[in-house]
Amino acid sequence: PQRTNRNRDVGGSLQRHTGAxxxxxxxxxxxxxxxxxxxxxxxxxxxxVSGMLSSLMTPERxxxxxxxxxxxxxxxxxxxxxxxxxxxxxxxxxxxxSGMDFLQTLRQFMTQMKAYLRQSSExxxxxxxxxxxxQIDQVLEKAMHKCVLKPLKSVIEVALHDFQVSxxxxxxxxxxxxxxxxxxxxxxxxxxxxxxxxxxIEKIRHKFLNMRKMYSPEKKVSLLLRxxxxxxxxxxxxxxxxxxxxxxxxxxxxxxxxxxMPQLDTEIQYMMxxxxxxxxxxxxxxxxxxxxxxxxxxxxxxxxxxxxxxxxETRNTLHQWHRRRTAQRSVPSVDDxxxxxxxxxxxxxxGCTAKTxxxxxxxxxxxxxxxxxxxFKIPDPENYALFLVTEDTSQQLAPDTHPQRIKAELHSxxxxxxxxxxxxxxxxxxxxxxxxMQNGNCLQVE
Length: 446
Known about the structure:
Blueprint: H1 2-18, H2 40-56, H3 59-71, H4 77-91, H5 99-119, H6 136-167, H7 169-181, H8 198-213, H9 217-239, H10 245-259, H11 264-274, H12 283-299, H13 312-325, E1 340-347, E2 351-358, H14 365-375, E3 384-390, E4 394-397, H15 403-411, E5 419-425, E6 436-438, E7 441-445
Parallel strand pairs: 1-5
Antiparallel strand pairs: 1-2, 3-4, 3-5, 4-7, 6-7
Helix pairs in contact: 1-4, 1-5, 3-6, 4-6, 5-6, 5-11, 7-10, 8-9, 9-11, 9-12, 10-12, 11-12
């Protein structure tokens, strides 16, 4: 009885969410107008081979395969939910107000189905018998991609494109891409870095085309990450110097313009709305927002104005997106991704200038100070130090501390406080007495 009630609750939630009764079955596919029947002996051999292959699979692949099979079995409650939802989406694409609304509906359904499978007794063997507890969610996520996004891939592509065309955004984007493609790197805000050559641009364009063939947002982001790292490598190899995040965005904008693929806009939207929130905190999440920023610069590109800085509207959109998609964080920010640290240079005569730096978890404060001195072009770095500044305190960080670990510790507190990393002159350099110890990191009190 408990199982029946739970199933009814999930089904009711789905029906309320879609606004329709999803009882119709998907159309039956007939091949050649007839049926092909395998001899009984061959069927037995196929079953044996299939059983052998299944036994060689990793536990994760076995679990994903079993969930995918269950999703196609309409006699199961889970299968009926998935198949009815797929049929509903195929038949009712026009009931959504925008591409974002459509993608959010898909994301909500996948989240509901993951919650159901965690409680359901339909999976045999139970998923917890195959997968460690801390890996179950990511396995369920992969299964949802296969069960829901794979069969709906073409439907999603057409729907997103139709929304762009009907709003006029598609034609405007094509015109802006054509205009931006004619511009030199410097006209798009690239400062000193040598851009990828035509051969590298074609290689990147090919990777973007491969991205379009994928249905998994996680795999799409993984490929985007490889593209962005390739661009970084080319920038550094061509000049022999390191570049920060503020140098990367204009170069990415230039590369996207040269690739001339308006379809990238919906690819980015697909990843931003369907990627599992737990994956938004790493490098992939950072580069995803960079890609969104690059596309936004092109969308708003004007002949008389170089696209150098994200508009306040774009920044607000990104902040709202982070807040919505990462509910576990109190105030998510573009600057919070792992391996990136926002540092402000504070000068008495010129005020504050901030830059986003590539800072890995085990980079020391001493190394961050060296990077700051280079990025901010400080002639006397021996007189500067890195400070952690909150609303009511300012603490100089000791040379052997790790700023990223300090940031992570501050974010893990129940009540998140506003803080900043500030690089500035120190009036007295003899401030090396540890005052606070947290997770092996010494915070120096000024």
